[in-house]
Amino acid sequence: MKQVGAYIWNFLIAIDQLGNALLGGWHDETISSRVGKSILKGGWASTVPWPVWLYDHFIGSVEPDEGWDKGY
After folding, report:
1. CA 8, 9, 14, 19: dihedral to nearest 10 degrees?
2. CB of 40 closer than 8 Å to CB of 66
3. Which of 38, 39, 51, 58 is deepest in the core (most CB within 10 A)?
4. DSSP 7-41
5. Interval 14-33 mean pLDDT
6. pLDDT 10s digits, 60-72
């Protein structure tokens, strides 16, 4: 059963990364990481009044080793 859960989780991450790639982002980065980087850099996402739980999710999802701007 644990393997099924891991498979589903990995599948969801793959869909997220595909969505990011289709939107012009890095193929191995999630949308949440991309939005988190935009917040930290003062980009478009920093102008949105995100709910605290979602803001925290975006910041916690930042992958500094992924994306076009590695190390954001």
Report:
1. 100
2. no
3. 58
4. HHHHHHHHHHHHHHHHTTS-TTS-HHHHHHHHHHH
5. 95
6. 999 988 887 665 5
Token readout for 7 is: 């498979």
Q: What is d(CA 43, CA 26) in angstroms, rounded to the nearest whole number?
A: 17
At CA 37, angle to CA 31 and CA 20, rounded to 5? 20
In this model, does residue 8 exceed pLDDT 90? yes
Phi first, then psi: what are they for 4, rounded to 5°?
-65, -45
Beta strands of the chain (E only): which ranges? Answer: none
Helix (H, G, I), strand (E, B) or coil at 68: coil
Q: Please state, as a whole number, how many other Cβ atoms lie within 10 Å of the Cβ of residue 37.
A: 25
